[in-house]
Amino acid sequence: MTGTGTINKTGAGLLQLSGLSSFSGGLNINEGGLFVGITNGGVLNSTVTLASGTIIDLNGLNGIIGGLAGSGTITNSHVAGTAGTLFVGYNNENTVFSGSFSKPRLDFPAMVNVVKMGTGVLNLTGVSNSQGTLVINNGTVLYSGNATSDFVTQTVNATGVLTLDNSGTNVNNRLGGIASPANATLVLGGGSFNVTGNATATTTEAVGALTLAVGGSKITLTPTAAQSLTLNVGALSPLTVTAGASLLLRGTNLGGVVGTANTANLVAVTTVPTQLGGAGAVGTTTMSIRPDILVDTSATGNGTSFATYIGAGGVANVTGGNGFRALAANEYASFLNSANTANDLLGMGTYGGVFAINTTINSLTLTGNAGTRAAGALALVDTLTITSGGILVQSGNSVMNGGLIAAPGTSLFLWTPGASTSLTLNASVTGTGGITKDGAGALTLGARQLFTGTTNLNGGSMVLNGGANTLFVSGLGVGNALNVNNGRLDLNGNNQLVAALASSNTAMAYAGGTITNLSGTTATLTATGTGTFAGVIEGNLNFTRSSNTTTTLLSNNTYTGATIIRGGILNLQQYGQLSATSSVSNYFGTLNLDSTNAPAVDINRLNVAADITLQGGTLAFLGFNGGTSTQNVGDVTILSGASVINATRSTVNTSSNAVLTLASLTVSDVNTTTVNFTSGGTLGQTSVGNSQIIITNAPTLTNSLIGGWAVVNGTDFASYLTPDSAQGGVGALGSVGYAAYSSTALTAGTATDNITLGASVAGVTTRTVNSIRVSAASTMQMNTLADTLTIASGGLLFNGTASVLAGGRLTAGTAPNTPATLYAYTNATATLFSPITDNGTGAVSLVKSGTSTLTLTPANSMAATTTAASNVVTVPSTTGLVVGQPITGNASIPTGATITSITGPTTFTISTSTGVTAGTSLRTDFNPVPIAATTTTYGSPVISVASTNGLTVGMAVSGVGAPVALAGIATTSGSSNVTFTANAGLYVGMAVTGPGIPLGATVASITNTTTFVLSTNATQTITGGAFTANAVIPAGAVITAINGNNITLSAVTTGAATNGTALTFGIANQALTVAGLTYNGGSVQALKGLSGGVTTVTSAMTVTTLTRGTNGMLTVISSNLTSDLGTNEKFIPGAA
To answer: Which of 90-104, 789-803, 968-982 comes out lowest in average pLDDT?
Structure first.
């Protein structure tokens, strides 16, 4: 329903609400009632007026209404007993409801819960019997007239107010009292609780428990001049579980004699309140106090003293009596003195605030600009221990200079009650309880802090003035939680890392404080923990969300710097926005634009002018549960990694839609990137229950695809349509309205075909197709090992479990000899028996994406069939196989078998028939052939081999020569210098092994006949030891030319090898050939101070104008050397 008119409901039936309507006119229920048919169903902006006898039946679900008025009943008929919750107040109107919140009958199991939202006043004047819960997140709930309730728990969060107004009709125990059945609990989590008395009768209110939750709360008790007002509580939550909770308790003549006119009291009638201190008698300076509770004898005051409890008979620390009151003047000490644990009050002009040794007191109250100062030889570490943790600035601007401040076992409570009061803490707080700041005044932290635990800001301002990370961050980069529940935190130009960023009210936007940076220097706030923040981040600052945790923001954050996500999740919920951020960079994290339960469904949560960068990150728009919603963002750039862009319509209301619009989409590096467009419903369809991702600057399609790197829901390649009334935006290839997959078979596919396979196919010859999608378990068998399957877009998508590509070779690219990327998406397990090769001279990259496993087998693999006790093996093709190749991977062929002869185009024999069993294996691996080298020469790229059978240009080569013994070794731990007795056969580049030599160490240089330098430092000191050096073919070397039995490598050897040294051609489990390598000739290595002109040519190397440095050495790798140098130059020719 939309519009502004009035709707009148008549008739005895129930009108079911199965969506969330936005109309703002009145909804009058004159007969019958409303029935909530879906979670979050209702009328967001309309006030519902219930006539007498009419109902709203929550049906065990969440219902939403703008306002509530009239005299009907809110009930819940869910027979299974599921509680129903009414969210009321979104239209911010003031209403009066004289009806009730009630179960159908008292023994019925289903409860009615109420959550007050919005800034308006909900005035309740009727009697309710539901034993559910009342939560006030914003605005006011007012009990007046005859109003009472049996809510088991009533919670008042920050920005919420609960008022019991007895000025007209005096009703005691409106909240249910201490006795059953209600035994109600009142929870204050930063909200306000007010009780107003009656002019003609004594007013008494009672709750079973008063619980102080995190946040700065207020209780205001206002009796009339002629009558008293008493708030009785069975128990008050102990201080040990309320770190971060603070309370201003104020009332007219608070703590006077109970029952006296114009006097307010808060009395604990069952359990003695927990207090901290020396438990001294009334009238002494060692009385115990509550550092988290400030009291004031005025109903409008800001607090003048820490609270102390006076029980029955005027005795401290017992129940009953007159309850909480302020400390009297004679109950303060005036000097810092450890002789007794006193409550100290220091005034301007006193010298009691100086301490030169470790000093312990119970609490500290400062007035008239008084402060403290650490003095003496150890002033930096002198510690002022405040056992209760309470510091109060009554008036003025106080400074605490130097030393350490400790609050053992509790939070340090710092109170600056008046807006004109301030405390500057030029000292470091220690301890593990964190700090809690309350009051309208200012706190400046002028030194780096040492405390761990949570920093709670409940009111006023807090300025970080101790440099970067004023709040403690460990050497490992671990911060502590920050709760900005109210007030303002100023970074003051300092970077600050915290753990959880949160506020006490996690249910309502704008219910927290403000984080800003008032300095002209841009600062960065980093949050690493899980938390929900209902306040606002503003100013010239950057915000970084880091680590594998979740940060949720509920309000519009107007900071102008960058937003950076480094892992984990950043949720923008309710009114959560980053409306002024300059950019958003998402590195392997998730950014949720979450309108799931947000009444403001169509706000743009990101600054549409801000560029968005995804590097393996997720950008998700989650649509509103109550209806269709839209979201617009700026230009999106994709870096490396598997990124996701998501638009999901409501999972509760499946008749809704979600539409996400990107200004543009750019992929900066297609060689390392994939993008998965995901959705609820069918992506690209405008019909109800679907989602769309629209790109304003539409992508250019190639053969109907956005690119081989782009898929939809991980199951189809992504295409694009200009939006119209039926379809539009990103959609799956083959979905309604979009281009279809090719009907051509893979065996006949061409470069423009997007192939989809639902069954196995064999005999695939060399060809190019645009993409391949495997929709069901299938085997793709190449015709021969020589056939190559080229995927132009690089897109290879596996949906069928255990799918296989076998035989031949696999590559990618739109044209021969051009670089390309193969994108392998595995939604189901897949195996590539075919080697992935370069595209001619163009390098091919492999990008693996998808949640399932992709198995890459040894490079030469294909199916093979054996017969029991026979040495004959049948394969699709013997092309490329050579005699001597070892065979592995086939359970039917014994370990150690090799090819002995090629007997036909599809058959060969192996070296044994013993142990051969019958069977067909898709994976039979044909491994590299060991070939003996006759000669290698130091510094030469040419080696001689016994046979070149099976070798090809591009094959990888590896090998290690015979060991060279090195005797008389001396090393020093931490040094790379080695001395030895002789260097015969030792060359630069040789691998060195021995005690204290790290794995992979080589000879970096040879200083002289008895000294050489390692590539890394030794880890032991050795004298007279023995080492071994080996000539090696450098890692990564490949064949560049074959001339008879001489093989030219892409890298020179590092030593001489004798006849018969075993070299290995090809690398096991990797592709055999890499085409298009270039041989660049030899090299000249100039070390230790040599400079001058060096010219390298293929046939010879000419060195000219070489200047000699100290201990200079020139290593020449060449067949000829022409030089015109001075004397005393040392040459080590590679061949000598």
So the answer is: 968-982
Per-residue pLDDT of 736-795, as tens digits, reads: 999 999 999 999 999 999 999 999 998 999 999 999 999 998 889 888 767 899 999 999
Which tokens hold the place of 427?
């000292």
C-alpha dist (Å) from residue 403 to 347, 366, 443, 475, 829: 20, 17, 18, 22, 64
Task: Identify the burial level of 1108 via C-beta atoms within 10 angstroms of its C-beta, where 0-12 means exposed, 13-18 middle and 19 or more buried.
Answer: middle
pLDDT tens digits for range 493-522? 999 999 999 999 998 899 999 999 999 999
From 860, 877, 858, 927, select the one nearest 899 (Cα to Cα).
927
In 3D space, the residue among 503, 520, 524 whose CA is nearest the CA of residue 585 turns out to be: 524
In the block, residue with structure tokens 């981040």: 537
More confident of the two residues 467 and 1044: 467
Secondary structure class of 878 (helix, strand, coil): coil
Residues in contact with 741: Cβ distance below 8 Å, sequence separation at least 6, in sequence order: 733, 734, 754, 755, 756, 773
Cis omega (within 30 of 0) on the bond before 876? no
Question: Mean pLDDT over residues 910-923, rounded?
Answer: 87
* Contact partners, residue 47, CB within 8 Å, separation at least 6: 26, 27, 65, 66, 67, 68, 69, 91, 93, 95
Give Cβ neighbours of residue 743 (< 8 Å, ≥ 6 apart): none
Residue 60 is encoded by which pair of tokens?
């065990």
405 φ, ψ to 5°? -120, 125
CA 896: distance to chain centroid?
50
- Give ∠ CA 493-497-501 in degrees, rounded to 5: 105
What's the rounded Cα separation, in Å, for the pair 46 and 235? 40
Residue labelled with tokens 């950019």 = 583
484 falls in which pLDDT band (50, 70, 90)?
Answer: very high
pLDDT score recorded for residue 315? 86
Buried b (16+ CB within 10 A) or exposed e, 767-805: bbbbbbbbbebbbbbbbbbebbbbbbbbbbbbbbeebbb
Identify the DSSP state of 886. B
Alpha-carbon span 720 to 701, nearest angstrom:
7
Measure CA of the first residue to CA of the last residue in the chain; give whole Å.
95
Please give the helix or strand (H or E) that residue 270 lies within, else none.
Answer: none
Place of tokens 């890298």: 1051
pLDDT of 1079 strictly over 70 = no
Of the candidates 255, 279, 273, the residue with the CA atom closest to the CA atom of residue 265: 255
Beta strands in 573-648 (DSSP E): 577-578, 583-587, 590-594, 611-615, 618-622, 629-638, 641-648
Is residue 746 a contact partner of residue 753, using CB atoms and an 8 Å limit? no
Q: Give the model confidence (pLDDT) of 684-719 as tens digits.
A: 999 888 999 999 999 999 999 999 999 999 999 999
